[in-house]
Each structure stands twice: as structure tokens, then as C-alpha cells.
Amino acid sequence: YAAARGMQKTADGGLEAWRTDPKEVAMRFMDEFTGWGNKIQLDGNSFDSGLELQEPKIEGSEEAGWTATVSFRRFRVTESGKVPSGDTDTLHMIGLKGTEHPAWFVSNLASPQMHIAEPSDGQAISSPVKLSGRGVGYESTIVVEVKDDRGRSLGKGFVNGGSTEVAPFTGSQPFSKAASPSGVVMLRPDQGAEGPPFSISIVRIHFLAVNIAPGTSGDGKQVTLYYLAERSGQLYLAKEVHRVDSTPRIATAALEELIHGSPHNNQNSTPFPKSSQVLSITISSRVATVDWSADVLEASVGAEAEALGIQSVVWTLTEFSTVSKVRFTVEGKQSGKASNGRVIEDWWGHVGLKEQPFARETSLHN
């Protein structure tokens, strides 16, 4: 895969060394794509939850290439301790040949409750994608979603499997044009309740050229974004790694992905209005000045979400070595009224912009 080669190059260059640890790759993948590790809803009650991972099983060689599997089970936390929830699922990864220390790339996630026969791992697909396999869901409903590697949902629907035990399913799912050459097809049982799924299966696929948006390149760039997440009633910053098109304006691309893209974990969010536009980013003396359109001032959130929203941008931009602090302007001004009549220095009405430039507040990150 082109994405796997890019990850290996990054790891070989001494960046993102965690990619050579299959257990860490597994945990990050599941945090981003499944929502496991957040709250779980069961019988009308809300519980903290987590994952128990077994030690990875690694096979292969530098000459032949590598494979790794990590089995895991989800649990919920009760007064009596950890209680298993759902099945033992297995994450499959590959490592490219020609390297002694491979960067692990997730190829599929398999669950005993949800087997995907079609599409197969690595298959090139076009819209609508044909689906077949075996699964079970609430009232026989199995949720289907197609995503590209930028985390954008391209199409979502359902097929019918078994209601109380695993049964065959067939169907198809249309999807829109992708912003990357590859992505995933995800199937999970409808649970009849809110919260992350108890089981999920994922296969990685390639999009045929007709289903790739014009100008999309496989030579993308990975960026680290910070979204708002909630655990035990408290907001914090949750880290996700996304891929954006290669561009000299990589900081702008990262911020636009944060505001307008889709988080991998559907429990994560951003308080910035979707109508917000990044007009420019300039960097001087390691301070990045983000100039926004007036729509950015239209958010209606509380003080905690305002503080975290500001910090989500600060943490995202200070991932770049050239930035240590961040300043906001609106339509080129630090104060006064924007074109929509909003007061710029008030920002969203609680924290405001009086303490600019902003540095990272480490207590806000999980």
C-alpha cells in the first residue's frame, strides 16, 4: 500500500516511532475508528470502559515481509470491577518487507459476530460497493459505512443479517467520491442503543479512479489533530492522526481538516462552526497567527468548550516544530467588531482572546 510505504518512511526518519509497536498501533486505531475506550451505554446506564489487549503475535521476516495480530476484548467498569463486554476481536496488521523494524499498517479488524466476505481486504471498489458475509444485529440490522483515509464518511446504510444469531447478509452501499486513494468499509451490529458498538469488522480497500475526487494524490501528509472528547462528565483533548493532501500550506491544511473534516472517532467533535473559514496562517518568531472569517464567532458553547476549542487549535498547530504559541485574528483584526457585528475579543463569550498568544495547557490533554 502507498500509505504503508509512507508510514514506513516516517518511522525510518525517526518520527512517529510508535508505529513500530503493533500494540500501540492497535490501540490508536481502535480509539480512532471504533470509539472503544469511551463510555458505554447498557440497560439505560452509562459506564466507563476500556480495552484489554493480548500480546501481539508477529510472524515473517525482513525478506518476506511481516504480519501481526492483536486480540482484544472490551470491558466496562462497575462497582465490582471490570466486566467483559462483547466478543474477543482480532486486529490484523502488515509490515513491509525490506525492513528490520516494520511500521505496522492495519489491514482489517475481524469479529466473530461480523464476518465480511465481500469486499475482501485490499480489493479495489467502485460505487455502489457489493457486500456479503455473515453477521447479527438488533432487529437483524447491520450498519454499513464507507470511509476514506482522511476519516470522511462517504456513505452509510444497512444490510440485514441475523437478529439473535449470526446469519448471511448481502447488499450494496453507494458512496461519494473519496479524498484519498484508499479507505475502509466498516460493518457493525445495530445495538438499539447509544454508544460505541460491542463488535465491529473493518476491511481496508482501494477506490477505483472513477470514485476518487479530482486532484487527489496518494502522496499525502500525516497531521496530528486534537478534538474535544468527554469522559466521566469532563471534557479533554483527544488526539487523532489524519492524512491530508501534500501542500506547502500544511498548517492551513491541518486546521481545515480539524474544522471541516470528520473525526475518526465519532465520539470526538469540534465546537468550531462548519461555516468558519481559515483566511490565512502566518508564522513569526514561532507564533502562528490564524486569521478567521467572521463566521467563527457564531459558536454557542459554554466556557469549558470554549477553552478546549481554543486549545484544540493551539495543540494542533504546535505539533509543527516552527510553532510554540498561537494568536487569533478575525478579518485581520484582533479587536473591535467583525462584519457580522460580533465582538472579536469576546470570542465565544467566556474565555475571550485577552490572554493571547496562547500556549499549550497540558492539563487539558488526556
Overview of the molecule:
This protein has 366 residues and is mostly beta strands. Helix content is 13%, strand content 39%. The chain is built from four helices and 20 strands. Helix 4 links the parallel strand 19 and strand 20. The protein starts with a helix and ends in a 36-residue tail after the last strand. It has helices spanning 2-12, 22-33, 250-260, 303-317, and strands at 40-42, 45-47, 49-53, 57-61, 65-78, 81-95, 105-110, 114-118, 124-125, 129-135, 141-148, 153-160, 167-173, 182-189, 201-207, 221-231, 234-244, 278-284, 287-292, 325-330.
Radius of gyration: 21 Å
- Proportion of β residues? 35-45%
- The count of DSSP E runs of length 2 or more, i.e. the number of strands, is 20
Shape type: globular
Structural class: mainly beta
Can you give the helix content as a percent range?
10-25%
Whole-number average pLDDT? 83
Low-confidence stretches: 38-43
Distance between the termini: 32 Å
Please report the number of helical segments.
4
Reported for the largest beta sheet, the result is:
10 strands, mixed
Query: What is the H/E string?
Result: HHEEEEEEEEEEEEEEEEEHEEHE
